[in-house]
């Protein structure tokens, strides 16, 4: 099945079996192994990528469903030489232990900060019309799709708050 | 996952024609169908992708009548400004489905067509007396949800929209499974021109159902106090590793109280 994706700003062509998930296409066909396969069932968020501006579980989509879509993976967010603000904050705040969930956490948090900037409320937002202050509760809800089995959550939250410019806990 | 053929439909008619061949299944957000195919619980020969059909997307409001296209994602229901002003309970419900990544792909049409016994939307549609519109006919919610993962849909029939009259008051409360966020028990209450209707999801061993004892109590007084001391039978409730039927029976009353409180603002 011929599929064309724009991945991290580059046009990429693949010819894969229709049952190839977007995650497998990225990892096995395009050699972008930053996105991780954790549960492969949409529960852990390790495979989170940003498609057409929205974060999704790449394991729960077939690559062919995304023909002509724009995909951003962790490789498109920063490089070891030029870390994004969130990547730097995860390092500074030690926002991981084993690091397996980290690419998904950072893709998810990158899109999440854009969602907040665009004024998207969450169900814990007290005032859904005002710009949201990223409290611990807001971040916990908004990042609820990304699990960390090492439980680095406090440091992940600190890293996100740092970048969001939230008041310190 | 077994081998499958993929077809991208550009219109509902297109999709219906594509489905005539083989053992085809319609693919919407894929939040349930794709995992089911991975575990080989589902093994269609062909997948008809409905996600690129623009006529299936969007919310239209005319007076107090709301119509939501089947391809509308949960996120768009949760954040629709006009819908929130008219029927905040439904936006609240949508904002509690799964997590943000799931809400960006999962659709209302997919949810009702799948009829998971712990899905949120069936309770709202049943309590509000909604109508499910397909490419062939209109089906009352009452007749649509027929059992566990079972609906009145015929082979090749596609849900195109759901429509309902916004009740005078409505509220939803659920006790989510902390991992999946599926309802371990969810209760939607609606007070409208047909009286009070209470629909329960996540608890029944045959899917979503209306609770007569709760409806009777709330018909007298639409107040959480009217449910004080009330209990509902645990017959025909689900028991699993998360909760026993008796625990779910208790949750039904607790969630109903919270839903009524929310409905009364």
UniProtKB/TrEMBL annotation, chain A:
Keywords: 2Fe-2S, Iron, Iron-sulfur, Metal-binding, Oxidoreductase. The keyword Disulfide bond does not apply. GO terms for cellular component: periplasmic space. Residues 1-77 form the 2Fe-2S ferredoxin-type domain. The keyword Plastid does not apply. It comes from the Bacteria. InterPro entries: 2Fe-2S-bd, 2Fe-2S-bd_dom_sf, 2Fe-2S_ferredoxin-like_sf, 2Fe-2S_ferredoxin-type, 2Fe2S_fd_BS, Aldehyde_Oxdr_Iron-Sulfur, Beta-grasp_dom_sf. Gene3D superfamilies: 3.10.20.30, [2Fe-2S]-binding domain. One of its GO terms (molecular function) is 2 iron, 2 sulfur cluster binding. It holds the Pfam family Fer2_2. This is 2Fe-2S iron-sulfur cluster binding domain-containing protein. The lineage of its organism: Bacteria, Pseudomonadati, Pseudomonadota, Alphaproteobacteria, Hyphomicrobiales.
From TrEMBL, chain B:
The keyword Mitochondrion does not apply. Gene3D superfamilies: 3.30.465.10, CO dehydrogenase flavoprotein, C-terminal domain (3.30.390.50), Uridine Diphospho-n-acetylenolpyruvylglucosamine Reductase, domain 2 (3.30.43.10). InterPro entries: CO_DH_flav_C, CO_DH_flav_C_dom_sf, Diverse_Substr_Oxidored, FAD-bd_PCMH, FAD-bd_PCMH-like_sf, FAD-bd_PCMH_sub1, FAD-bd_PCMH_sub2, Mopterin_DH_FAD-bd. It comes from the Bacteria. Residues 1-169 form the FAD-binding PCMH-type domain. GO terms for molecular function: FAD binding; oxidoreductase activity. Keywords: FAD, Flavoprotein, Oxidoreductase. It holds the Pfam family FAD_binding_5. This is Xanthine dehydrogenase family protein subunit M.
């Amino acid at each position: 099945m011929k599929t064309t994706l724009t991945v991290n700003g580059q046009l990429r062509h693949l010819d894969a079996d229709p049952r190839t998930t977007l995650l497998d296409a990225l990892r096995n066909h395009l050699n972008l192994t930053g996105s991780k396969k954790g549960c492969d069932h949409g529960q852990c968020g390790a495979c989170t990528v940003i498609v057409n501006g929205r974060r999704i579980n790449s394991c729960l989509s077939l690559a062919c469903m995304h023909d002509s879509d724009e995909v951003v993976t962790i490789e498109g967010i920063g490089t070891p030489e030029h870390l994004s603000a969130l990547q730097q904050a995860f390092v500074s705040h030690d926002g991981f232990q084993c690091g397996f969930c980290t690419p998904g956490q950072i893709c998810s948090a990158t899109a999440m900060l854009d969602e907040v900037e665009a004024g998207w409320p969450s169900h814990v937002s007290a005032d859904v019309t005002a710009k949201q202050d990223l409290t611990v509760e807001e971040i916990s809800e908004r990042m609820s799709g990304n699990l960390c089995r090492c439980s680095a959550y406090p440091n992940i939250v600190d890293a996100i708050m740092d970048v969001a410019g939230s008041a310190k806990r | 996952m077994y081998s499958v053929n993929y077809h991208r439909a550009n219109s509902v008619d297109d999709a219906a024609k594509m489905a005539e061949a083989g053992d085809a299944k319609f693919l919407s957000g894929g939040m349930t169908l794709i995992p089911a195919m991975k575990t080989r619980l589902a093994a269609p020969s062909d997948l008809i992708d409905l996600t690129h059909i623009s006529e299936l997307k969007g919310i239209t409001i005319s007076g107090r009548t709301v119509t939501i296209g089947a391809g509308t994602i949960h996120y768009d229901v949760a954040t629709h400004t006009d819908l929130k002003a008219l029927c905040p309970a439904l936006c609240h419900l949508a904002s509690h489905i799964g997590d943000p990544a799931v809400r960006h792909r999962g659709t209302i049409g997919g949810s009702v067509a799948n009829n998971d016994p712990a899905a949120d939307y069936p309770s709202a549609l049943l309590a509000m007396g909604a109508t499910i519109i397909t490419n062939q006919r209109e089906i009352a919610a009452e007749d649509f949800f027929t059992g566990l993962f079972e609906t009145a849909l015929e082979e090749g029939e596609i849900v195109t929209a759901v429509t309902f009259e916004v009740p005078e008051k409505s509220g939803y409360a659920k006790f989510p499974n902390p991992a999946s966020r599926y309802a371990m028990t969810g209760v939607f209450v609606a007070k409208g021109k047909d009286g009070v209707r209470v629909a329960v999801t996540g608890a029944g061993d045959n899917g979503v159902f209306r609770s007569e004892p709760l409806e009777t109590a709330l018909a007298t007084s639409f107040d959480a106090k009217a449910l004080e001391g009330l209990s509902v039978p645990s017959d025909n409730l689900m028991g699993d590793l998360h909760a026993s039927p008796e625990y779910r029976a208790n949750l039904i009353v607790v969630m109903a109280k919270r839903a009524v409180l929310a409905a009364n603002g």
